[in-house]
Amino acid sequence: MTSIQRATSSPATSRTEAPRVDTRPTAAPEQPSQRNALATARNTDAFVAQPLRYDGSKPAPGTDNTQAWIPVDAPVRGNPSNRNAATYNEVLNQFAVGNNPRYTPRGGNTYCNIFVWDATRAMGAEIPHWVDANGNSTGVGKGRELNANATVDWLHQHGERHGWRKVSAEEAQNLANQGHPATAVWKNPGGIGHVAMVRPGEVTSQGPAIAQAGSKNFNNGHVKDSFGNRPVEYWVNDSGKPTGGGQPAPTPTPTPTPTPTPGGSASVPQVDLQRDARGPEVQKLQGALVKLGYMTPEQVATGPGIFGPKTQSAVAKFQTDHGISPNSGIFGPKTRAAMTAELDKLSRPAVPQSTLRRGSEGPEVKQLQDALVRLGHMSAEQVATGPGVFGPKTEAALKAFQSSRGIEVDGVYGPQSRQALTDALGGKPSPGPVTGPTPTPPTGGSDAAKAARINDMLKNSGLRGQGEHILAMSKKYNVPPELALAMFQKEAQWNTTGVAPKNNNPGNLRFAEWERQFGGVPNGGFTRFPSVEQGIEAYFRLMDKGYRQFIDNKDWQGMINKYAPPSDGNDSTTYARQIAQWMETYRAQING
């Protein structure tokens, strides 16, 4: 059998638009922009929201002009006298480079240098697109346009007198974390080069954190995600003054401690925290991030109890994944609430949605047993004698639970017991009635109900409306739907970033001949499918034929070692940990 493997990222390239005849109208001299008066913090976690706030999901007004040679007037501007990570984050996020038509590849052209031009110009440290013979910025059409290679040349020849200097990868990341504009560049001697913005984050095995346009566009990634192993240079403009401002200092007064839910087993800090904070509360935050798969124990070991760039990057990623805007890396009330909820989900047993009785077997029986153990009606030793088997011990425990909740003691797990169990575990009530012998369809365990829950999860993504199809493919190929959802999130943020949505390819599959049966055609190293439904089915078929042994053995690390091998520069250990973590979360959500 031919080995089947996911595509790995190819280097992103960029060039200006194709040469145009000199007949387009010359733009009027640039007028001073209407500056956004965002002089203080940007974190909705810690203070009252301001009118303008961008998280990278959609471009700010006025930043999506597809006439790429014309500058845009971005509403959020950086101030060289007040450099800070929060402002730099929002300056980059306002361009929503992963979803902005201004940077969408078209006509054989890509726009990495345009994004760098826009971002540095908004930061008050312009790397120009139009220059005169002396390398000075000019108006539109009054000089020559710089492509990516020429942009690298400009930095070498003119960067120093404009405040730019060459630094190491680590220094570029450190200075970006202070709010200084920084860029990663590669001059391609044999073709088109590439440039990207270094953004606040951390240096990983994939290099510094970046946002970029190019053959694939993304707002949050790392250098090797696009440059591969090419010889990248880093440049930073640190002529401005780092203030650490743009966000409020954390208050030392703890916020009221929320009432713990019965399922909660891990705690989160009850004080607001940000970069440079130290102490046991930071260590508690790091422990929660490890449990949720956003940090590794090895990362924490480099600075336990110290809120450094790795912790900040992990908090920012958690914020992005949970829709907290902006993703500034500050731990405040909104992040605390979301993190508490996620930790509670991890430790709370799932509530079975099917009717169960003596003689029933399967994973939902095990869910019932785990819940009864949590509530003190069974012991782990009793479950170990027949996990997943509804025998006399489970029946006796269920009757004891029913008696304790004042419902009919019949030893049958039905609608009343389901509602009582949900309430006892602190979860949300199940759909359907709580009395009477027959629930109103769709029942919690029905395909229709599960598909509806998947659709609700995907409603704001590029896979919206695909719940029924994902569930059908899961049954057809015997691949868990939560595995597909987790990998679709990892590969393309549920088909919203990179080339995946353009290719209808949420799993970022590399082209192979067998994919033609689903309408797949090669598109660079990836596969383009005629519809997202066909791209989803191709993924499930790949899992079934190429990864069956890993799925059957629940060997997620082995599966990811093949799907995203370390030899391609992937952090496969973190990838596998995230997949396992997300699968658990999605499984609980699908089952209600």
TrEMBL record:
<feature type="compositionally biased region" description="Polar residues">
    <location>
        <begin position="1"/>
        <end position="16"/>
    </location>
</feature>
<protein>
    <submittedName>
        <fullName>Peptidoglycan-binding protein</fullName>
    </submittedName>
</protein>
<feature type="compositionally biased region" description="Polar residues">
    <location>
        <begin position="31"/>
        <end position="40"/>
    </location>
</feature>
<feature type="domain" description="Peptidoglycan binding-like">
    <location>
        <begin position="362"/>
        <end position="421"/>
    </location>
</feature>
<dbReference type="InterPro" id="IPR002901">
    <property type="entry name" value="MGlyc_endo_b_GlcNAc-like_dom"/>
</dbReference>
<feature type="compositionally biased region" description="Pro residues">
    <location>
        <begin position="430"/>
        <end position="442"/>
    </location>
</feature>
<dbReference type="InterPro" id="IPR036365">
    <property type="entry name" value="PGBD-like_sf"/>
</dbReference>
<feature type="region of interest" description="Disordered">
    <location>
        <begin position="420"/>
        <end position="448"/>
    </location>
</feature>
<dbReference type="Pfam" id="PF01832">
    <property type="entry name" value="Glucosaminidase"/>
</dbReference>
<feature type="domain" description="Mannosyl-glycoprotein endo-beta-N-acetylglucosamidase-like">
    <location>
        <begin position="468"/>
        <end position="587"/>
    </location>
</feature>
<dbReference type="Pfam" id="PF01471">
    <property type="entry name" value="PG_binding_1"/>
</dbReference>
<dbReference type="InterPro" id="IPR036366">
    <property type="entry name" value="PGBDSf"/>
</dbReference>
<dbReference type="InterPro" id="IPR002477">
    <property type="entry name" value="Peptidoglycan-bd-like"/>
</dbReference>
<feature type="region of interest" description="Disordered">
    <location>
        <begin position="1"/>
        <end position="40"/>
    </location>
</feature>
<feature type="compositionally biased region" description="Pro residues">
    <location>
        <begin position="249"/>
        <end position="261"/>
    </location>
</feature>
<feature type="region of interest" description="Disordered">
    <location>
        <begin position="214"/>
        <end position="270"/>
    </location>
</feature>
<feature type="domain" description="Peptidoglycan binding-like">
    <location>
        <begin position="278"/>
        <end position="339"/>
    </location>
</feature>
